[in-house]
Amino acid sequence: MKPGTTNQPNNESSGSSSQSLEHDALCSFQEIMRTEPLKAPKAFEHLVKTSIAKNMDKSYCEKAAEDFFEMFRTFSLYKKRKMTEEISKMDLTAGICLCNKMGIGSSLPWDACFNKLGGDEGELSFERPNLRHLQAMGDNKYGKLGVGSNEETINELRNVLLDEEIDKAYIGPNHSIFVTSEKGIYAAGKASNFLEGYENSEEFFTSPIKLNYVSSDYHTMRVLMTENSTVFQNFNPAAALVIGQRPDDCRVISEGPNWSIVTSLDDELPTVIQLKNSREKDTNVNEFHRIHSLVRNFQIKIWSSANYEHVYHARLPIIIVNGYRTNVSRRDTDISVCNDGTTYACIRGVFYKGHLKLAPADRGRKRSRFEDSEGHSSPAKPDILVAILEEKILPMKIERFDVDSEGKSFIFMNPPIRDDKEGKPYHPIGIRYEFKRQNNSDHIPKNGLMLLEGFQLLNDALYPDCIKMAYDPEGLPSHMSPIVLSLLTLRNLLEVDEKTKITKSFIECRKTFDGKDEVDEDDVEMFEQKFYEELKKSVARDRDIPIAVSGVGWDSIFEGERPSIMQRKSTELLTSVMEEIRVLLQYLVDLPLVYRNNRADCIFYRLVHKIIAGTRIQLDRFEEKQHGHSYNYFGMEDTIFGPCPVDTPMRENLELGDFDEPRLQKIHVEVILKRESNFDDIWFWNEVHRWNTNRLFIQYIDPSLLEHTQGNILNLNKACQQDSTPTRFRKIVDKLLGCKNDKGIKYEIIDINPKVQSIISELPPNEKYFITSNEEKVVEVPKVLFEIFSGYDSARRRHPTGDVNSFRLDFSEKTINSLICCIFDATAFVGMDIELKVEVIKMARFCIFSQLLTKLLKALVVTAEEKDVHVVRQLFWEHRDEMIQIIGELRPDMILFWKASPIPEESYWKDFESVCTKISSVHYRKTPERLRRATEDEDVSDDQMCTSWLQNLMYDEEKDRDVRHDFEKVLQSWNPKRDGLFREPEARSTQSVRMRTMRIILRSISMRIIRRNDEIFSKMTEVIKRNPNILRSCILYEFTEGQPIFETFKKLCKKFGEDFIDYPEFEYWFMRFSQGNFDLDHDRKIFSLNLNTRSFADLPVEIFNEIGGHLDLSDRFILRKVSKDIQVLVDSWDPEVIALKYSQGYDNRHMYRYSWKFSQKSTVLKHFDDSCDNLLSLLKNPKLRLEKLTIRCSYDKKKEIIKLLEHSNQKIRVKRLEIDGKLLQKPTIFHMFDDKALKEVTVRTREQYIRSLDEFDIFKKLEMLTVFTDVCPSDPTLLYNFPRLTIKFYESCKVEVSRFIKNLLQSTQLQICYLLSVRNSFNFELIKSYFAEPETMVPDFTNIRHYPIPATNEFYEIDFEEEKISIERKQ
């Protein structure tokens, strides 16, 4: 009931009483808020609970919340922090009710409040829903935000009309540029700034349009924005593209209507920010516009009054967030600074606004010295750069944002989608493979019979087990695929002419000997080169292995039926391939005599044998390293914008006996998505999605898929296997599973009606229903869709009246067609106006489309805006239970931020509580420590700011006296070396000198009194310790103070000394007193026989883990020796070791010997103790993730290293491995490393060991192989098989390096190579003189050479840089 209203005369008394109760409760809250503001949150919680219990009018709570925040806005920064801590102690329902009155964009530490409302402090974080679409707000001059509006200012978040993933956005004064992850560039705003031919035009675009003149290959180019132009730096290697008005001081290369290509322009100058320094003088801080959290240093320029430019390097600014000093380097952070010093930040998904300030350094600090840009030392104490930030409330979780230089326009983006194991892209075949020819061979065949013997050895190795393993149980090519590809390649290479039965590739190779009676080595080399050209043409790709479809259900995999079918199909495939190869080899062996001159046959036999021998080696390695698989099976996923689930309603219809299976046109769809695994025992795991659908849905998505059905089974992997790219496969999977649409909704209006109508028009009349609308129009719809989904249709068919295929519905033609479109594709619902959405939902409810109705309700709620609140409220009334679930899970912002509530008034408090409960269960999640938001001060640096400056910034002397003591503690924690706080700035006056003198005298007197009192107190303490009753009386006295047990214990320890009493004894008496037993003469020993004393090992695991977090590795090793139970717990902790090193040097005892060192999150290496058990426990820890492992040992120590690593019983996960050449000799250690984790290897070796590198496949898969060697390798072919190389030379080898480079260019595998000299002994000019061929020169680039790669459109680019030579393969 509203205040001041009455309904009926007989209710007047009760209404007046209720109104009086509500008024009194509000007045009571306002009085507490005025007198004791820190107790206001608790009082508001009581008001909400009273409102719920008495079903009071919610307007009183709303009025109380408004009054509270009017008061909150007047608080100082620290008072807001204290109030936030009090709000966080409220229950969630009251907290939501209170914070709802703070609108979007308001300043309130909302996140800090809600992080603790959900439960355990620190462990849970409130996770707002992710941003579903690119959004913008703020200054919208010329419609530059791209939201489809020309309003000057957009005050709320709106969707940018661009449906692609954004990598970067640039916001200028009059336009914006959007760079997409698909390499497209879009723009919105003033057209003359980004479109050719629009010179001096006043036309503008409010929706982003694609810029086709910028090649997508340059999507990473730098973009500079001005008021009248866009500059694309690096448009080509030596020029920039200017659209619009070009700068005056540039050289024009070419130009056209509103565009110019000019010489490269200087980079954009840093933004100059006006700040006040500690002496209140204007100071210019030259600051980079964007500060990344990973960048620890950036340049600061201070301009003094003497106009002397002082330059130094400072760390990232000290960040104060909502009054808390925060270490942003531990969190995902994005910071932008605008021209006036206004600072915006996104920290762990929360958006903040504030300012940069220069804080004077604390006077108690020792004066530091630093150097300016010219190296001059100065004793001056620099000011400290500080960012003061307060949260700006946004309804969604923000991961990235961009802001213009004036801080008036904002664009908020989703986090970029990365191609990793957790997501796409995926391929219809699974993991992609490359076939690489092998150079290894056991023997060189002298004739064809020996070649057949080599093939027989391969055949014997393949049977009987491996021949069954070409397929996974799902039917995809297995991890044995490289071997199968080798066999298919060999089959293709040995193909014969149908008429002559002569091997075609042999004929092509033999042509190199035509007209020659004798051949020399050069001729043989040409023959081999031609052979490898033919081999390249014959190489089989992964899509050449046919996918097998079993025709049985996925559940049968657990019973062995499906795997056995796949084994049979694998055997059939490989047996047929091997038989084909055998026949083709026989043709090759039986070559006519005319082709055998000049040893052509023997040379060809030898080259073919390399392929056979290489395949057998691969097979041997495969058998040694077989890994298992992991399987995950899914049905149709429950998505919002995916297709309507068909499986359940079809099964229900079949169970009722209304239809048989052929009538429902069922198609069983299966798709296998292969993911790489993180586990040691498996290489990958498979997501197997399968569900039943209807033929019409497949026809709508892609009609060509129907051609690939086998019976009623459609395997999407097989259907898309022969596609040249996986794009179609990914689109179909996204469409069918609907996951991508849920993450990024397409907000453009999608007119799918023509496509649907085309499908309907192809149906025969007996497959249609003819529905008469309320406009007397006849609408044709697919009969089978109503039969499957509609409960109304089922009832209508059971009780027919007239023609069953024709009936009337009281809905418009547009509504009926829209509903049919939503069944086919729920994304069609997004583009409808709100009135049509409501009508479609009404029709779905009337026709009992139960499966579709839930999906449409979710779609409406997800896409609703606050202006649609009346529609949401009506739906809430009609579908209460569903809407509570949907709003609580998908749109908590409706309750948290909307000014008008979507909950109907009739049962407001009951439903409000239900939604809050759902929000609590869904959006509070356990969060790792590194991802938690700051809710307490963090020690981030040694920088100590002046306390008086902090006092003026954060504290109000008049209004904040009630929190003075707490604030002093905070300052003490920020500046721990300062004992005097709240000091006024010292004045150079006689009075201040006198005061300082008096303080010194008083301090001296006080110290004498304290020393005397200490002697008396010490004697008293001894008396208390000797008398148990007095000791117990002290505990009882402190117990009456009501402090927690451990706080009381610490307080007594501080008074009487650390050893005055054991904690178990203290705890015993404290707990007796808490149970009401105050007998001080109680004899504990009498009862001790029946008591079980607790030990250290009895601590809860959570507390034990907390203790472990504060121990370094050496302490943990000591702790694990206490007992076996503790050892198990200690070994389960993350060791947090990032580096290990084994080398010769001085240990802790200053003895020169081999020893192990470790590093934990720092570059400092510490020594292990002598215990091998400690090191072994570390290597056995499954959580060990090393950044770097260095092993430099002698031959004698090598066996110890191997034995130690073998005893770890697990593969070592390390990113960078550094070893010496001794470890390349057998036995080796490389099988003990996880090759998926290993990215870089550095080998210090001599030339004689380099040939050993080629024996290890693990080196060929690295991101970089670095070789330290004394001289230049004499045989570059030893390095041909390594695509990414860095070679560092110790000695001078100028001519040898030139020859080495020229030979290295013959490699077919090389992608990039760097050559460096450790002692800077390269004479680059001399080396460059050996590469002076005119055809290799690059105009205007004297240090670059281009060498074409034969038979390709690629070339090697050699760049003679200042300190290194780089060789890179390019197109």
From TrEMBL:
InterPro entries registered for this protein in UniProt: F-box_dom, Mos1_HTH, RCC1/BLIP-II
Biased amino acid composition, Polar residues: 1-12
Ranges for domain F-box: 1093-1140
Domain of life: Eukaryota
Pfam families per record: HTH_48 (PF17906)
Region (Disordered), start-end ranges: 1-20
Gene3D superfamilies: 1.10.10.1450, Regulator of chromosome condensation 1/beta-lactamase-inhibitor protein II
Name of the protein described by the UniProt record: F-box domain-containing protein
